[in-house]
Amino acid sequence: MNLERLPNEEKLGLCRKYYLIGFAFLPFLWLVNVVWFFQEAFIKPAYSEQLQIKSYVKRSALGLLVWVTVLTTWITIFQRFRAEWGEVGDYISFTIPLGTP
Amino acid sequence: CLHTSAVSTPPEQNGLPPAAPPPQVVEAEEDEDEEITLKYGAKHVIMLFVPVTLCMVVVVATIKSVSFYTQNDGQRLIYTPFPEDTDTVGERAVNSILNATIMITVIIFMTLVLVLLYKYRCYKVIQGWLFVSSLLLLFFFSYIYLKEVFKTYNVAMDYFTLAIIIWNFGVVGMMCIHWKGPLRLQQAYLIMISALMALVFIKYLPEWTAWLILAVISVYDLLAVLCPKGPLRILVETAQERNEPIFPALIYSSTMVWLVNMADTDRPKRNSREAAPPQETQQAPVATPEPSIPSQDDGGFSPNWVNQQQHQLGPLQSTDETRREIQQMPSARPPVEDDDDEERGVKLGLGDFIFYSMLVGKASATASGDWNTTLACFVAILIGLCLTLLLLAIFKKALPALPISIFFGLVFYFATDNIVQPFMDKLALHQFYI
Q: Which residue ranges traverse the bilayer (chain A) (predicted)?
């Protein structure tokens, strides 16, 4: 899918859809949205829909940031304290490393 | 199979073209066109090298590091019921031949079902099938892959993070492949799922069966694509008759291709550029044979009908003609919109990716010569791909991409493993450097 070939309204529509679908626990989708539409939103010379695309990109970036913080915190906590949680730790573990904790 | 969606377009003439260009000019143009064709074609060939190499690299890297894919757990696919750990060589040979026969029959059957479905316009069924198989690949197989990778690297992972990862990977993958997404990401996903499929094959197909299947598949590919009664040929011809793009399938495209009405003779101006089938969304590779572990649904999909995806032959023909037509049209026509650039690209079926990677992966897994053999197979496959693309540029029809590469790959594998490697070992033993 080449953004160059799309008319502006469709670009806006696509950006918007990506933004909305990203609410379904899909930070990766927000990342894709930001990267893909970055050039459209910030680097290209202005056109009518650009303002809205910019806002969607910004909001996606914000959502992405939130997710990244949450995930990083959780992962750090998990990795650090997993061994100490005993049974609960094992229960929520998908793979348990072998050897000394 | 391989198909190129046309060649470059010559620069547009803005001035008044001569009403009847003298024949020499046309010929010179023809030569130029051909040259441009070949040059442009060469560029796209190189563009195919990268994804094929990437796929192979991923597969080999996984095979080398994650032992899961080379362990023999005793599980087999339901398509290859005969075990290979038998007492005598003869029994083993017979078993592997039977396995290969069953597999190829399944594949032929699936291809025929596909062609029939297409002929009777059951597009929904086909799309549903593709959707389900890509779902399976993106979620289930990547889940297993991740699990094994984590186990190998001894990393703890909790269900929550894992769920987020798999969910994101899967959903974005489905969107990129079946709907709209950035080209690079789509290409990356297609490479990843091909690699996953190849890994499944490497794990679940016993030795001799795997090599036999590779050989038989190449022959089948050759027949299916080139014979007049071959299912794939029928598929392409039906699509051409109906003047539709072949339903979006599992095809890797080296560039973006645009949705356009092919063979639209009353509007030649549009045709000059487009003509490529709307393959912008390629779907996930076909199904995968179910490994016998997880119960449930029977994929029963033949992973290979993919490599038999054809594309239109039409576009190429229309390009040459329409180009000349345009040059003869009065200049009053509006300039053709759309940029030129690389709208056409070469397309390679995902099945081809899968089998190439499977060959190289198997070579790296089981060869005594280790890296020598792996590299030899890799080079062989690339050479085969080059030759196939050369033939494509010459014949300008959809061609099977498997036979030449697989043939070279197999020859190189067995030769290197049995002849070159012992030779190198001996040399190293005697510290004799040549």
A: 20-39, 60-81
> Is the pTM of the predicted complex or chain greater than 0.80?
no
CB B333 within 8 A of CB B267: no
* Chain B residues with CB-CB distance to A96 below 8 A: 156
Q: Strand B2-4 and strand B346-349: pairing?
A: antiparallel
CA dihedral A29, A33, A36, A37 (to 10 degrees): 170
Q: Read off the amino acid at residue B236.
A: V
**pLDDT, mean of each 10-residue run, chain B (434 residues):** 46 44 63 69 80 94 89 77 82 89 90 87 85 90 92 88 94 89 90 92 88 92 87 81 66 56 33 32 33 32 35 33 43 40 67 92 84 91 90 83 92 88 82 79
Burial-class residue B1 by CB neighbours within 10 Å (0-12, 13-18, 19+). buried
Nearest by CB to residue B161, choosing from A1, A14, A71, is A71
Residues A79, B183: C-beta atoms closer than 8 Å: no
In the 8-state DSSP scheme, what is residue B77? B
Query: For B136, which DSSP code?
Result: I
Which positions of B are annotated as active-site residues?
Answer: 221, 352
Among the partner residues B158, B167, B182, nearest to A93 by beta-carbon distance: B158
In this complex, is the C-beta atom of A46 within 8 Å of any C-beta atom belonging to chain B?
no
Closest residue by Cα to residue B319 from B23, B108, B37? B37
Q: Please name the member of B162, B168, B256 whose beta carbon is closest to the beta carbon of A28.
A: B168
Does B390 lie at the interface with A, CB-CB under 8 angstroms? no
